[in-house]
Amino acid sequence: MNSARPTIVESSTLAEPMNADVDGLLLFDAGCPFCRRSVRWFLARERRDSRVAIVGLETPLGERLGRHFGFDPSDGDSIRYLTAGRCHRDSEALWRLCERLDGSWGALARMQKVPRPLRDGIYRFVGRHRSRLAPSDDARLEGHPRWIDRLTQAHCRHLELPLSLAGEAPV
After folding, report:
1. 3-class SS at 153?
2. Which of 5, 22, 69, 93 could pair with 81 as two cysteines, CB 3.0-4.6 Å apart?
3. Is pLDDT above 80 for 28?
4. Which helix (H) or strand (E) element contains residue 26?
5. Does some domain include residue 4?
6. Amino acid 18: pLDDT
7. The model's pTM
8. In a domain, 9, yes or no
């Protein structure tokens, strides 16, 4: 049996930098190896017509979005998924992201049929134990082509967010 960790290969379509065609924004705990691995898994299986950008919850942009949507990004207790002017969290964010998966992986979005208290309970259980679910040496994502440090006015228009959230990159 091979003891080497499996490698998640990123699609060559992700090689270009994130442009204004963003149609979703995934905020996650960038310090969590399980979260980083999960984001890589998602991006490797995302449909070609889906353009989700990624950002860490505890970055200046994550904090600004937290203030706007009324959540504390330092909690890091849940992913957030922004699209069409709305902020989704927990299992709702997860099934909405699953709708963007390619091929039969998209069937995971059917989890929305499970009663929300049950699916959120499972989501939170995994979240409490996530530190044991991935090796701590998983590479960071800050340099990934889908990572953004700021929202442009074009991003805000595509995501249906107020233009006031657009701003300069942090110094």
Report:
1. helix
2. 93
3. yes
4. strand 24-28
5. no
6. 53
7. 0.81
8. no
What are the distances in angstroms from CA 147 to CA 2, 63, 75?
A: 32, 15, 20
pLDDT of amino acid 108: 81
The total domain count for the chain is: 1
Q: Which residue, chain included where needed, has tokens 């998983």? A: 138
Task: Answer whether residue 138 is part of any domain.
Answer: yes
Domain around 34: 20-165
Which SS3 state, helix, strand or coil, does residue 23 take? coil
**For residue 1, is it within any domain?**
no
DSSP codes joined into one string, 74-127: GG--S-EEEETTEEEEHHHHHHHHHTTB-GGGGGGGGGGGS-HHHHHHHHHHHH
Reported as a single tens digit per residue, the pLDDT across 132-161 is 776 677 788 888 999 999 999 999 999 999
